[in-house]
Each structure stands twice: as C-alpha cells, then as structure tokens.
Design brief:
By secondary structure, the chain is mainly α. The protein has 5 helices and no strands. It has helices spanning 3-31, 36-43, 48-61, 69-87, 103-137. Helix 1 crosses helix 2 (36-43), helix 1 packs across helix 3 and helix 1 runs parallel beside helix 5 (103-137). It is elongated and about 55 Å long.
Length: 138
C-alpha cells in the first residue's frame, strides 16, 4: 500500500467512526422522550463511551431493542480503534527509515484494512438502525 493509499483509507476509516458516533447520538435522540433536537443537543458534546452507556440503558428499557449486546461490545471497542487511528497509527512506522519495506508498516496496513472493512459494514448497519428509529419514533 502506498502512503497516499494509506492516507485515503485512514481518512475513510475515521469518517466511518464519525458517522457511527453521530448516528448513535441521533438514535438516542429519537428514542428519548422529549424534543429530538433538544435531546441531541444534550448529548452532542459527550464522548462515544458516554453516549453508548446512555443509549444502551435507553435501548434496553424499550420493548424493541435496536442494538444487540455483541454490537454494543464492538462499539465500545470502536472507541479504542478510533483513538488508535487518530492519535497513534503513524507513529508505529513513520520514524522507521525506508518504512515501506518494514514489517511495522506492513502490519499497520493490514490492521487498517481489517478495521476499515469492518467499520464500513458497521457504519452502514448503524445508519440503517438510525433510519429505522426515525421511522419508529417520529
């Protein structure tokens, strides 16, 4: 993988993380009693972990659970993945001379591909849940 391809895939991976987080906030906002916009504003500045905790409590209190326990576990792990890609990924290889040929760069590229592909699927799934929650609660 070239560095330009790495940049592009990393950018898309971060985009998936951001859309997942935003969709989860909207799902919470639809499900919580009150005005949707006020609900969204009340959690907009919260961390993904805080949003997940509140959404999980709300989701389990309803007869129609939107997100499974295993999906909540993955979403919790996503916080670590997002933090790694945003704050650490480049330092794994960028200081290595001729890093293109290093095992560190090859390992990080493989990890990026795995996380990117998984997050692409999760992003679409969470978007579908957001759209269903919009229909159910509007």
């Amino acid at each position: 993988m070239t560095l330009i391809e790495f940049h592009a895939m990393l950018g898309e991976t971060i985009m998936y993380c951001q859309t997942i987080e935003n969709d989860l906030k909207w799902i919470y906002s639809f499900m919580k009693k009150g005005k949707v916009e006020d609900n969204f504003d009340s959690i907009d500045g919260r961390t993904l972990g805080q949003v997940l905790k509140q959404l999980k409590e709300l989701d389990r209190s309803d007869s129609k659970q939107y997100i499974s326990s295993s999906d909540y576990n993955f979403l919790s792990q996503m916080t670590e993945k997002r933090n790694f890609w945003c704050h650490q990924a480049y330092t794994e290889f960028v200081y290595i001379e001729d890093f293109y040929n290093s095992k560190e760069y090859n390992n990080i590229c493989s990890k990026l591909i795995r996380d990117h592909d998984k997050l692409a699927i999760v992003s679409k799934s969470v978007e579908n849940v957001r759209l269903q929650a919009l229909k159910d609660y509007r």
